[in-house]
Design goal:
Layout (H helix, E strand, L loop, with lengths): L5 H15 L13 E6 L5 E7 L8 H9 L7 E4 L13 H8 L3 E4 L11 H8 L3 E4 L3 H7 L1 H9 L3 E8 L4 E3 L11 H12 L3 E5 H7 L16 E5 L10 H4 L6 E6 L7 H6 L2 E6 L9 H10 L4 E4 L3 H9 L5 E6 L9 E2 L15 E9 L2 E8 L2
Parallel strand pairs: 3-4, 4-5, 6-12, 6-13, 8-9, 8-12, 9-10, 10-11
Antiparallel strand pairs: 1-2, 1-3, 7-14, 13-16, 15-16
Helix pairs in contact: 3-4
Length: 374
């Protein structure tokens, strides 16, 4: 009888995680899941691969089983998240795996969704299938951090993307910032947009830079995220790029009730949706409320592309979960604009603290990835 080692399990689960990443930014509110079907009795032959399809359906397991056909019988299924066990728009994936006759299931992470939460694993075991859990669990949890946060805390994951000089400046004293990083790093920034459900910025950045905030990589133009602008006084220029493209790319303005009411019909006529947020003590949209509202709307992954003010506001509220920090081999000096506005921190022990998880050279620049310490 063929056996499978721990190293084999890790290898195939990492392949499933790579497949799962294809769904990031395109499957909310569902998780991005990958599934690989392997036949140990055939020397570890992969007979089926699948990942969550755009819109969240079909699920990864369904896709992999479809590709495998009858070869799924006796296979080991490597799945990055517990197969669903409830009837929704599709039948339960746990049932589909059992009906296909798999012999073993290796699952990275239990699904915290109350509709699943261990029931998929129990169903597989009740069907006589050997189940192993926890393989590459940390990697799976990071990949689907947005889904997990929305399920547990009712809010999406926020990733702060910034491009700075070596001394942490995003622009010169005159506000000039084009271009701090090179073309390869800017292309990676577009890739990040494609991997997120929405991109969030502040009105200050819009007024200064007139960004479009779309994904303009060849072949991925359709993956442009929802654009969200925090605009307390509804100052968004009707002739800016965001407003002029709102008819084809969803664009939301976050403001407070009663702000510049005379502009509302104009924005709505351009296809912009206005979100009236609860106000904080300063009269600006309350970011905690906004995080919950975005989660309620089904968003799981938000890319923050604002200036120092937006970065500081979200950091102060503890809402930044990940940093994507592009660093260029340049120096601007102390009179340049910093990546984050003042946080009002008196002691080092009170600073937001992150763990670096990856460093990557991109042309002449470096991309460092950090996760918030919890």
């Amino acid at each position: 009888m063929a056996t499978t080692s721990d190293a084999d399990d890790t290898h195939h689960m990492r392949a499933a995680l790579a497949l799962a990443r294809r769904g990031l930014g395109a499957v909310a509110p569902n998780p991005a899941v990958g599934c690989v079907l392997v036949r140990p009795d055939r020397g570890g032959m992969v007979v089926g691969r699948g990942w969550t399809q755009p819109g969240g359906r079909p699920h990864a397991e369904t896709e992999a089983l479809h590709r495998a056909g009858t070869d799924a019988r006796k296979a080991t299924a490597y799945v990055t998240l517990e197969p669903c066990s409830h009837h929704g728009q599709t039948p339960p994936c746990a049932d589909a795996l059992a009906d296909a006759g798999i012999a073993r299931a290796v699952i990275a992470l239990e699904d915290p969704d109350p509709n699943v939460s261990g029931r998929g694993i129990a169903g597989l075991r009740d069907a006589g299938i050997t189940v192993v859990t926890g393989v590459c669990a940390k990697e799976a949890a990071r990949l689907n951090a947005g889904f997990l946060l929305r399920t547990r805390d009712n809010r999406p994951q926020f990733t702060l993307k910034t491009a700075t000089t070596l001394d942490g400046r995003i622009a010169t004293r005159t506000g000039d910032s084009r271009w701090i990083t090179g073309a390869p790093a800017r292309a990676m920034g577009h890739r990040l947009r494609a991997d997120h459900d929405a991109v969030l910025t502040g009105i200050g950045t819009v007024l200064a830079d007139d960004p479009e905030l779309t994904c303009r990589l060849p072949g991925l133009e359709h993956r442009s995220p929802i654009r969200i602008v925090i605009d307390s006084r509804l100052r968004l220029p009707p002739d800016c790029r965001l407003a002029m493209t709102a008819g084809r790319i969803p664009t939301w303005l976050v403001t407070t009730a009663g702000a510049a009411s005379e502009n509302r019909k104009m924005y709505e006529g351009l296809g912009i949706e206005i979100i009236d947020a609860e106000a904080d003590s300063s009269g600006r949209p309350d970011l905690g409320w906004l995080a919950r509202e975005l989660g309620r709307r089904g968003l799981t992954r938000i890319l923050v592309e604002g200036g120092g003010t937006s970065a500081a506001a979200l950091l102060s509220r503890g809402l930044i979960d990940q940093l994507a920090w592009f660093r260029a081999p340049r120096l601007i000096g102390g009179d340049g604009l910093p990546a984050a506005a003042p946080l009002g921190i008196d002691t080092v022990s009170d600073t937001p603290t992150f763990t670096r998880t990856a460093v990557r050279e991109i042309g002449m620049d470096i991309l460092e990835t950090y996760w918030k310490q919890t």
